[in-house]
Amino acid sequence: MTATFDYEKCIKCRSCFELCPLDVIAWNEEKDMPYVKYPDECQLCFICQVECPSEAIHVKIPLAFW
Amino acid sequence: MRNIKTDVLVIGAGAAGSMAAIMASDLTENVIVLEKAVHRSGGALGIGHFTSEINPMCNVPGGPTSMEFVEGYLSSSSGWSGIERPLDKYIIAEEFTPIVKELESWGLEIYKREDGSWDSYWHKHIGERMESGCWVKGGTMKKCLMDEVKRRGIEIVERTMAVDLLTNDLKVVGAVGLNTRSGELTAYHAKSVVMCTGSASRTYIVNPGSKWFYMRDMGTNSGDGRGMAYRAGAELTMMELIRTDHMQGNVMARFWGGKCINAKGEDFLAETYGRRWSRSYAMHLEEYKGNGPLFWDARALTDEQMEKQLAYVDDEKNYPDVVLTEYYSQRGVDRRKALAEFESQPIGFLGGPVFDYYGGTTLPGLYAAGDEIWQDSLSGAFVFARRAGIAAAKYAGLQEDWTPIDEGQLREIEDTVSAPMKREEGISPQELEEKIRSIMTKYAYISKTGGLLENGLRLLREVREKWWPKVKAENPHEIMRAAEVRNIMTVAEVHMAASLFRTESVPYGRHFLHRLDYPTQHPTWYRQRVVVKNEGGEMKLYKRKTVEQRPPTREEYEAVKEVKP
Questions:
Q1: Where would I find the beta strands (DSSP E) of B330-415?
Q2: Residue in B215, B319, B330 closest to A61 by CB
């Protein structure tokens, strides 16, 4: 479980793609939208969610996390 | 390979790297910074650590003097561990407050009282040293550094990981950078290098529900500086000590006010250990004795106290607190009422290159700062990064020209780094990393024994010899992960060897070694540090006597006040 996107709200600003410190989020150039390319490498740092200007990202904390 | 010349090369653009670059830029226009992530999100500050509370604030109205701070420090477990270098603490006490004033002039927002003074405090943590600090708006900490870097026109090369140092004899003359999106390698030819790659944290799998990137410190912290420095022949020290923290999931639990109780409801920190033990060590021992789980009990806090606490905790853009806020909200739990359970988890290692009072390592031209070296949190990072930045720039100023790069070494680095891309078959970097970290978790967890460590070390070396040559990468991102796992292997091996070598238990603030087969401190180890060094491919360990364990004199500080190259 990691970042999930609300593509209706996404304004395609690429902030999540540019900021993710572990480079987990990639950009699908064809569809012009972000996606999580390496879900296993997500640290749950929430930077993408905090910095998303259109509140289109929700990071889900997995049940087994704690 | 492209070759770029610079006077000073800084590796890592976190708190320390940003500060070192800014300070170096006062003395030379030629500063380049490599950052594996991007400036905004790189380092501990990037994900919001430490950002609401900064300490120690000394020599301010109501606060302790530098000497009082150091005396308090030495009377805690950090002091009587016997391996402290007290002048480091005096330097921090003396120089951190002026740095905070400078940060404020760059845009850091500090919480103020009605009379305009800083919202500072001075108290003693139970079982820990004297704390004196002030409250800041977390979101402005990294931002003020970014703004200052931009104002000065310092170049930050983002998405670029330093994969190896370049050396000429033992002199460090630069580093090779890997662009983690394009895969391109670039030689950065420098007169001096400052490594600021953070703690070494990707070393354990911290709980059964954990994935490989769930950890307290920044996920990029794979011990790159330590790996590179070790390969280049620098001495590493204090690597036998593990840091643990009181965690909820991968988040450091906060318990300002309130108390820490065990399963029986006892305020064990106050009752059992008093001020003798560090909190982390006391909590680990409490769990080890079977008195867990441990909780943060805030039920006795007044509404006002609780509100003040949550106001800081809920400061948006404060990463650990965003995660906790999200956690409670996603689970539907009211944390004002709930007992918050936490557990001791290994955070990683803060031992690293042996350094002098100016951040200089045992290799000429190589400096280190921040969590790369043995320093304390944000204050130590800023203070020693300022020193390392100035020292590195002064050292560069003394070099007439760039010392030539060894072309053979460049080719060797290129071959090693790109080898995983050329393999048709093999294992992923993730698979090897998980193997290394599971060995660490099984054989070198918080409480250790010689038998487990010996066996773990043997397994680790077998795995390195058998599986590292089979790591396969599909793209530049995985080349980065492969380069990282090489450093993780080194850090793991150094930690295991060093903690096997030190035949005693030693508590040192939040960092300690708990040997079940040597459960107490031993006089023969008093004032002895373990030094680990790569000598022609062979790992050598030494006992090295450190300084007298007493508060430094003012004269001793004056002698090191001016930064020397």
A1: 340-348, 352-353, 366-368
A2: B330
Residue type, A3: A
Q: Check if the beta carbon of residue B549 is closer than 8 Å to that of residue B86.
A: yes
Note the Cα B425 to chain centre separation in Å: 35
Please check the confidence at residue B255 and state whether its pLDDT lies above 60.
Answer: no
Is B476 at the interface with chain A, CB within 8 A?
no
pLDDT tens digits, one per residue of B515-563: 999 999 999 999 999 999 999 999 999 999 999 989 999 999 999 999 9
> Tell me: the pLDDT tens digits for B264-317?
998 887 765 554 556 777 888 888 889 999 888 777 777 777 776 666 555 544
Partner-chain contact A65 B37, CB within 8 Å: no
Q: Does B72 touch chain A (CB under 8 A)?
A: no
The contacts found for B463-468 with CB under 8 angstroms, 24 or more apart, are B463/B432, B463/B435, B463/B436, B463/B439, B463/B489, B464/B489, B464/B493, B467/B427, B467/B432, B467/B435, B468/B432
Q: Look at residue B139 and tell me whether its pLDDT is greater than 60.
A: yes
* 3-state DSSP assignment of residue B331: helix
Output the DSSP codes for B433-500.
Answer: HHHHHHHHHHHSSSEE-HHHHHHHHHHHHHHHHHHGGGB--SSHHHHHHHHHHHHHHHHHHHHHHHHH
Q: Which residues of A touch B208 (CB under 8 A)?
A: 64
Q: How many residues does chain B have?
A: 565
pLDDT-derived band of residue B128, with 50, 70 and 90 as boundaries? very low
Q: Is the pLDDT of residue B126 over 90?
A: no
Whole-model pTM over 0.90:
yes
Helix (H, G, I), strand (E, B) or coil at B518: strand
Q: What is d(CA B203, CA B460) in angstroms, rounded to the nearest whole number?
A: 12
| DSSP state at residue A66 | -
Distance (Å) of CA B128 to CA B124, B125, B435: 7, 5, 36
Q: How far is B295 from chain A (nearest CA, A)?
A: 14
Residue B421 C-alpha from the chain's centroid: 31
Contacts of B317 in chain A (CB under 8 A): 50
* Distances, alpha carbon B552 to alpha carbons A53, B244, B381, in Å: 51, 29, 21
**Minimum Cα–Cα distance from A18: chain B residue:** B38
Q: What is the ipTM of this complex?
A: 0.96
Contacts A65 to B, Cβ<8 Å: 209-210, 214, 249-250, 327
Residue that wins the pLDDT comparison between B7 and B83: B7
Q: Judging by beta carbons within 10 Å of its beta carbon (0-12, 13-18, 19+), is residue A35 exposed, middle or buried?
A: middle
